[in-house]
Design goal:
The longest helix has 23 residues, at 147-169. The protein is mainly alpha-helical. It has helices at 35-40, 52-57, 86-97, 107-119, 125-142, 147-169, 177-193, 211-226, 235-240, 255-269, 272-293, 305-309, 312-319, 323-338, 348-359, 362-365, 369-375. InterPro entries: Fun_TF, Zn2-C6_fun-type_DNA-bd_sf, Zn2-C6_fungal_TF, Zn2Cys6_DnaBD. It holds the Pfam family Zn_clus.
Length: 380
């Protein structure tokens, strides 16, 4: 997303004369300012939970923490004998008993996520930090009276994870490929769990580029760069296991007819060079609908395969706010709506639909009335 230019700070006006030096007016330096103000190199008033600059720009205000809050005790859980605090013991407990259960519709899926802490996370710190970040965000929702402290813990672990996984991405091999694959997935979960952000609509942003989409597409990049068969601790066990499908669900009224009409409209009105790409996006979406409502998918998250399988050209048009791409994306949001039973996706459906509505002109609004009705979102 685009950032505003840094605000200039006042300086003392130099006196005229060849021998006079230019001096700055002395002022108290902001050493404990928020991360956003430091990034933009402007003065922060250090108000908490949100400084005046962040309130004015309507963005999340985060303050750096040298270590997560909690009573410090020595422990050697992390690889390399890294010290952790009592709060990480709490996060480990809640990951194994609660948070991992929310990543799957089935007990077997939750058991798989739980075992990955021992099999992968204890040997790769970035995975463990992301598990802690996601767990802290769940606790922030369950314990609102301690929300600020848990969000601070989540931010701390998320930043630590990014600093550790970045070097591994440039040197992926058989020793770290499973850990990198897990971290890329968990980064997407953490960004969902942070909740809807102004201007961020998952597959596009208010100013075009979507940070979440870049991370999500990183899953495909990770798999293709090293080969799916090499992921022995993640993909291969999942392939061998027999996951039972979800029970058939009540399908949205007339969805087949709606998607067929949408396909006819799109192929008749889009540019010839984009026709095949747009038609393929609708065909994949129709397949996702069928799999969801006819007991084929084993997890609700599988529907995000739609974004995974789309061409780069289509996603570029979507991020450029192309009207047809936005209309097709609105029909995907119906599948997202079912996933709001998971705590980390709550609120995203209406937020994304509002972003699509705001980006479309009046002539295209009629084509998203059906998905708007399906998810229960009413325009302001």
């Amino acid at each position: 997303m685009q950032q505003e230019s840094p605000e200039s700070e006042s300086t003392a006006t130099p006196q005229e004369g060849p021998s006079e030096k230019i001096t700055r007016r002395s002022h108290r330096k902001s050493r404990a300012g928020c991360k956003q103000c430091k990034t933009r190199r402007i003065k922060c008033d250090e108000e908490k939970p949100s400084c005046a600059n962040c309130k004015r720009r309507n963005v999340r205000c985060n303050y750096a923490t040298s270590k997560p809050p909690g009573d410090s005790v020595q422990a050697n859980v992390l690889s390399g004998s890294e010290d952790i605090s009592l709060s990480e013991i709490e996060l480990t407990y809640h990951w194994t008993t609660t948070t991992c259960q929310s990543l799957s519709m089935w007990p077997s899926g939750a058991a798989g996520w739980r075992s990955l802490m021992e099999d992968v996370a204890f040997h790769h710190q970035h995975v463990l930090h992301l598990m802690f970040a996601l767990t802290a965000l769940q606790l922030s929702q369950c314990r609102p009276n301690r929300r600020e402290a848990y969000v601070a813990k989540a931010d701390y672990h998320y930043e630590k994870a990014l600093s550790k996984v970045t070097p591994d991405l440039a040197a992926i091999d058989s020793n770290n490929c499973d850990a990198i694959f897990l971290s890329v997935q968990l980064i997407c979960f953490v960004n969902w769990a942070r909740g809807p952000e102004p201007g961020e609509f998952l597959a596009f942003g208010e100013h075009g580029r979507s940070d979440w989409l870049v991370m999500f597409r990183g899953i495909r990049t990770t798999l293709t760069s090293y080969g799916r068969h090499n992921f022995a601790k993640t993909l291969e066990p999942a392939k061998r296991s027999k996951s039972r499908p979800l029970p058939p669900m009540e399908e949205p009224c007339d969805y087949m007819e709606q998607l067929s009409e949408l396909r006819a409209h799109v192929t008749a009105t889009c540019l010839p060079s984009e026709k095949d790409d747009n038609a393929q996006a609708i065909d994949i979406l129709q397949e996702c609908y069928f799999n969801r409502y006819n007991g084929v998918d084993s997890e609700l998250h599988v529907s995000f395969a739609w974004l995974y399988r789309l061409s780069d050209a289509f996603l570029e048009r979507l991020q450029a706010h192309d009207a047809i791409a936005l209309v097709i994306y609105a029909h995907f949001v119906v599948l997202m709506h079912e996933m709001e039973r998971f705590w980390y996706l709550k609120g995203w459906t209406h937020h994304v639909m509002s972003g699509i509505f705001a980006a479309l002109t009046t002539e295209h609004i009629a084509w998203i009335r059906w998905p708007m009705a399906r998810v229960g979102w009413i325009a302001p």
